[in-house]
Amino acid sequence: MPKQSLQLITENFTVHSLPPESEVPKLVLSSNIFFIGKTNDELSIVCDSDIEIDSDEAEPGWRALEVLGPLGFSLTGILSNISGVLANADISIFAISTFDTDYILVKQDNVELAVKELMKDGYKVLNP
After folding, report:
1. How many whole angstroms separate alpha carbon 17 and alpha carbon 84?
2. CA angle 102-100-41, nearest 5°?
3. What pLDDT does 77 receive?
4. Which CATH superfamily includes the segment(s) 5-126?
5. What angle do CA 89, 67, 9 make, to 5 degrees?
6. What three-state secondary structure class fits 41?
């Protein structure tokens, strides 16, 4: 099976952690790309770094690689294989999955190396 193609997303992202009872800021909901996760312990928001959020903690400086899909639920090992390539290059990731695809976030400082390593392993990486 050929390796997936990935698209480097232009936005810079920040990962925010807030108390679970927090409301999601309206500015987040009107942005082009955002991710929200809520548990009993926290509300996590990943959004464009231009959006200011009064969060408990924030980790800025992320870029996203979108696995071009849609990916069927019967496909296995996609995220594992990509994260393995990046782990072998000592690049940490923040992974997010949606219904159709996966997003692999890497720190801005590691984007060039991540793209290089993925391409060396046979992935096609499209730049914006």
Report:
1. 26
2. 60
3. 55
4. VC0802-like (3.30.2130.10)
5. 85
6. coil
